[in-house]
Design brief:
Radius of gyration of chain B: 15 Å
Largest interface: A-B, 26 and 29 residues
Order of helices and strands of chain B: HHEEHEHEHEEH
Structural class of chain A: mainly alpha
Helix content of chain A: 55-70%
Largest sheet of chain B: 6 strands, antiparallel
Low-confidence stretches of chain B: none
Shape of chain A: globular
Number of helices of chain B: 6
Low-confidence stretches of chain A: none
Radius of gyration of chain A: 13 Å
Mean pLDDT of chain B: 95
Shape of chain B: globular
Strand content of chain A: under 5%
Structural class of chain B: alpha+beta
Number of strands of chain B: 6
Oligomer: heterodimer
Strand content of chain B: 15-25%
Strand order of the largest sheet of chain B: 3-2-1-6-5-4
Number of helices of chain A: 4
Order of helices and strands of chain A: HHHH
Distance between the termini of chain A: 15 Å
Number of strands of chain A: 0
C-alpha cells in the first residue's frame, strides 16, 4: 500500500470497502452485500486486490442499487482520487491505474 | 452500524431516490453554481452531494483544469460540506489557514483553498443531501446579503433536485 504524500491518502482496499458497508448496514448485511457483489464480479470475497479488481467489485455493488450504490460511488470516487493524485505526484504511476 | 448521520442508510437511500449521482451534470444545477460563483466573485462553486465516504459533485463551476473536475469528487474527510450534515446549517470558513478543523486539510495545504461558504441542501423529507457552496483561494468575509443569496440558490437547487422524484 502506498500513500500520497501531502494528501494523506492510501490506496483503497477491499477492507476499506467492507468497513464502509459495515458503517452503513451493519456487519451481517455488509458481508452479504459484499459477497454478492464479489460473486457478480467473479471475484473471491476476501481476496479482492486493490485497483481494477476492487473497481469491478464496486461496480457490481452499484448494481444492487439504493444506498448500496451510494457506498459504491464513494469507493469509486476514493479510487479515482487516489489514482489521479498518484499520477500527478508520480508521473510514472500510470501503470498502477486500474 | 454507525449513528453518525453521514452514514445513515436512510439518508443515502434518499440521495439514491433523487438520482443525485447521475454521471450527467444537470444543466440547471450547473447554472446555479455559475450564478453563485459569479455573484460572489469567487472562482469555484459546487452543488455537492455528501456520501458516506466521499463528496460527489452534482453541479459545478470553475473546475476546468483541476483534478476535482476529473474525479467528480473527493474523500469525505477533506469535505467542508460534510459539516452541514451534522449541523444542518450554513458553514463559513473565512481563512482556512486559521481554522482549527481545516488548517491541515490537503485541499487547503496542497490546493490552496482559503475561504468557503456553504448552505445545506435539505430535502422535503428532512435529509441533508449536500451543499451549495462557493470556494476561493484568498481569505475573505461573507456578508449577510451574500449568505442570503446562497440560501436562495440552495432553495432553487433543492426544488430542481426534488422534481426528479416526481418524474
Amino acid at each position: 500500500m502506498s500513500g500520497i504524500s501531502g494528501y494523506k491518502l492510501e490506496e483503497p482496499t477491499e477492507l476499506d470497502a467492507v468497513a464502509a458497508l459495515t458503517r452503513v448496514f451493519g456487519a451481517d448485511s455488509a458481508n452479504a452485500r459484499w459477497t454478492e457483489a464479489c460473486v457478480e464480479a467473479l471475484l473471491l470475497p476476501g481476496m479482492v486486490k486493490p485497483g481494477a479488481a476492487l473497481g469491478r467489485a464496486a461496480a457490481a455493488l452499484a448494481v444492487q442499487g439504493g444506498s448500496a450504490a451510494m457506498v459504491a460511488r464513494s469507493i469509486e470516487i476514493r479510487m479515482r482520487t487516489y489514482y489521479r493524485l498518484l499520477e500527478r505526484t508520480l508521473p510514472s504511476a500510470n501503470q498502477a491505474r486500474p | 452500524m454507525s449513528t453518525d448521520p453521514i452514514y445513515s442508510e436512510q439518508r443515502l437511500q434518499e440521495i439514491a431516490d433523487l438520482d443525485l449521482i447521475s454521471s450527467e451534470l444537470d444543466p440547471i444545477l450547473q447554472e446555479l453554481a455559475e450564478r453563485s460563483a459569479t455573484r460572489l466573485g469567487l472562482p469555484v462553486s459546487l452543488i455537492s452531494v455528501v456520501l458516506d465516504e466521499a463528496l460527489h459533485v452534482a453541479g459545478s463551476h470553475g473546475l476546468q483544469g483541476l483534478w476535482l473536475g476529473e474525479t467528480g469528487g473527493h474523500p469525505v474527510e477533506w469535505s467542508f460540506c460534510a459539516t452541514s450534515v451534522h449541523t444542518r446549517d450554513a458553514y463559513v470558513v473565512e481563512n482556512a489557514l486559521d481554522d482549527p478543523k481545516h488548517r491541515t486539510n490537503p485541499l487547503v495545504l496542497q490546493d490552496g483553498v482559503r475561504c468557503y461558504a456553504g448552505v445545506p441542501l435539505i430535502s422535503s423529507k428532512g435529509f441533508v443531501l449536500g451543499n451549495l457552496c462557493v470556494v476561493g483561494l484568498e481569505q475573505r468575509t461573507f456578508t449577510a446579503d451574500e449568505m442570503r443569496f446562497l440560501r436562495e440558490m440552495a432553495a432553487h437547487a433543492v426544488s430542481q433536485i426534488e422534481q426528479r422524484r416526481r418524474i
